[in-house]
Design brief:
about 0% strand, transmembrane helix, single chain, 14 helices, about 325 residues, MetI-like fold, membrane, about 80% helix, mainly alpha
Length: about 325
């Protein structure tokens, strides 16, 4: 386990070095970039850049004339709220569909579910998002079109996580504000989670079918255990190890799709903020947003890798 932590720590340091070096190089434009590349003090300037980052000085927005870190922190909770719910949807429904398909291997339910996941994997996010808005918002009127909450609710931004803040305002609105915020969150989360859900479902089916061929599963069947008990108690734990690993990759997919999703649903998160920064050529905001989102992806992947390693008994043995 100690060697595992050393390996993950080394990977994290290399990733952080490469990421910060890339953002430093990209932040230099034109003649200044050429001067830095030819300078003998390149590493010194890079270390000075790291010191500014660690001190919280990520530059100033040329549009708003204030620290970009302030702008990022204003939009970050909305993105995290959306990403976490999308990841939760992807894992819960992906696992459920994969288990159902593996339990009915080769039957009509298996073929139907795998066909549905293939369709979900093939749909572009922008098309899928607009289709959901057209059906559930404009045609059926079940969900709001855009935003985080209706304007009739004046929820104080205590944590800036709308679901939490709406619960904190129970004395004023009861649960009405919370359910309204949840309704605003459902369609963007479904849009963002569809592709990862399809991948996790197919990975769950494949991994579970491989585990079900193991010797200890045949022993469990010979003892008369039911198929459901075998799957949920004995097989799923070992099948989850590669699923957790692939879930880390899905975080990258979700973060890459969050920009388009936030734009479609006018979601006031980091993705929409980055698009506005690109349209206005606010280079400091672009650099800070890309750096922060990349750090978030690295952190998610590291956490899921550690969790998958912990669930693998071979890696928990003392070395």
């Amino acid at each position: 386990m100690f060697k595992l932590l050393i390996r993950h720590g080394t990977t994290l340091l290399i990733s952080l070095f490469g990421l910060t070096l890339l953002t430093f190089v990209l932040s230099q434009r034109g003649d200044s970039a050429l001067h830095i590349y030819q300078s003998q003090h390149f590493m010194g300037q890079y270390l000075e850049y790291l010191q500014y980052l660690l001190a919280g000085d990520w530059g100033y927005s040329s549009i708003h004339n204030r620290p970009v870190l302030y702008d990022f922190l204003q939009h970050f909770p909305a993105t995290i709220e959306l990403v976490m719910l999308a990841l939760l949807f992807a894992i819960i429904f992906g696992l459920t569909l994969g288990i159902m398909a593996a339990n009915r291997r080769g039957k009509w339910l298996d073929n139907t579910l795998m066909g549905v996941t293939l369709a979900g994997y093939s749909m572009p996010i922008y098309w899928w998002g607009m289709l959901l808005v057209l059906l559930f918002s404009l045609t059926l009127g079940w969900t709001p079109v855009a935003g985080r909450i209706d304007y009739i609710y004046d929820v104080p931004p205590v944590t800036r996580f709308m679901l939490i803040d709406s619960l904190l305002s129970q004395d004023q609105y009861g649960f009405d504000a919370f359910f309204n915020a949840l309704l605003h969150l459902i369609l963007p989360a479904i849009t963002l989670s569809t592709i990862p859900m399809a991948i996790i479902a197919r990975m769950t089916r494949s991994s579970l079918l491989g585990v079900l061929k193991a010797e200890y599963i045949r022993t469990a069947r010979s003892k008369g255990l039911s198929q459901q008990r075998i799957i949920w108690v004995h097989a799923l734990r070992n099948a989850l190890i590669p699923i957790l690993t692939i879930s880390g990759v899905q975080v990258s997919i979700i973060m890459s799709g969050v920009i388009i999703t936030e734009y479609i649903f006018a979601w006031p998160g980091v993705g929409k903020w980055l698009l506005e920064a690109v349209s206005r050529r606010d280079f400091a905001s672009i650099q800070a947003g890309i750096l922060a989102l990349s750090l978030l992806v690295i952190a998610f992947n590291l956490a899921l890798d550690l969790l998958a390693s912990y669930m693998n008994p071979r890696l928990r043995r003392p070395s």
